[in-house]
Amino acid sequence: MTWIKTIPLSEANHKLIDAMQSQRALYPKEYVTPVFPQDDGTAGIVASHTLIPEALFHAFSTFGALMSPDLPLSRRQHEMIATMVSVTNRCFY
Length: 93
Prior knowledge:
Blueprint: H1 14-24, H2 44-47, H3 53-66, H4 75-88
Helix pairs in contact: 1-3
């Protein structure tokens, strides 16, 4: 759960909905279902960016592009890098 103001999907305007759908389309299929979904089914980290749809799209589409299966790294290598970044940053997820 985020501790900042967020906009739930039920109150989202067209610009926010487009940003959320566009960035989600770039994610690998393994990331379709959020691990800790909000009440409306969105991921909390994505919800934390709902006040600025442009930032939401650019931040999360970057991640989607970096996880592309077309890149020379394997999925296993992507996960190892993500795990080490999380450990280094002391993230629990």
